Amino acid sequence: MQAVHAELKYKSTDRPICPATAVIYADSLSNRGGTGVYLKRLLEGFHQCNAPVVTIIGNELLTPAQALTYEHFAGSIRKVINENSFRSSVTESISPSIVHLPAFSGRAPRGVPCAVTVHDLAFCRNPSWFPLLRSIYYRLQFRNAARKADVVMVDSESMVIEARKYLGIEEDRIRRVYLSTDSFLTNPDAFQKTFSLQGRYIVFAGTIEPRKNISALLDSWEIVRRTHTDLQLVIAGRWGWGPAALRRRLSDTQGVLLTGPLSETMLKSCICGAKLLVYPSLYEGFGLPPLEAASAGVPSVVTPASALKEIYSGISLIAEGFDSDSIAESILQSLESEHNTEVLRDFASGFSIERMAREVLKVYEEFGT
Description:
This protein has helices at about 35-50, 65-70, 75-85, 85-95, 120-125, 130-150, 155-165, 190-195, 215-225, 245-250, 265-270, 290-295, 305-310, 325-335, 340-350, 355-365; strands at about 10, 20-25, 55, 60, 100, 115-120, 150-155, 175, 200-205, 230-235, 255-260, 275-280, 300, 315-320. With about 375 residues, the protein is α/β, with parallel strands linked by helices. The strands form 2 sheets. The chain has an 8-stranded mixed β-sheet with strand order 1-4-3-2-5-6-7-8, sandwiched between helices. A 6-stranded parallel β-sheet has the order 11-10-9-12-13-14, with helices on both faces.
């Protein structure tokens, strides 16, 4: 490997860092949302494949395995500075064939091909779903990153259409790579004991924000509970943003358990023990929780968002609409139906971590120098 920029620090390892086909900006591993999950699984896949890639976190150059155990992440402001400042000279000194910005943010050095991953375009579809400053930042930063990229990777065919429509990206610069999951099949006792939960429950998993349509879910819950009085609704995830009234309602509604953020192990235990996962989102670029539930043999109900229909038609029950009556009707139908757990797990196995990593490597090979 060529000499590396003086600002770059190596982390000691028994495994030498080899010349890289790709450099991945990996600060978003600290993100508890979908972007962080995507990057974690991508690096796990690269590690399994022994792929010739390296990551940059802060001012350290790391193998995928090292990045997965990294602990000293910068705050959000420093992260933005890192991604857009000194890394150009660092990356040039490594001489990769391509730079990957997996969190839709950052800047690659001139002369080095750049790949950007776009998970969704909610900020274009409905800016009001976000706080004002966040919405403005997304629309300015993300559009700029995507338009400068040599290739834009998206999570679904629905996102191919949206990248062309909202970002003006030519189709020959777009590549679809479906997301992935590991197995969520585990012992549900840990979650149930931790939260003193007894009996049956259904679950929503994800960050609580306006486009997740939680108000409609709570309205549908009132209908469902008239028939299933012993059932509980678990809302598993962190509060993102939204009306204070919704937060109070989540805490006060009878039969609803709001867990707050869960560790990966606890989330798996939570989903694995559920009778059903309900995902009422108004919009998604892919929508991971129904796939994660399927990997544990847990069925799901989803709304007719285009990406959700694309991924889960034939494996999930798709509600007729986004309203509470449609969601409630689908929940009741699913609870009264038989589900083949092996079919669900077989479906999820087609979205393996290694499969996703190998497809991303093919994109690197196609667009890299």
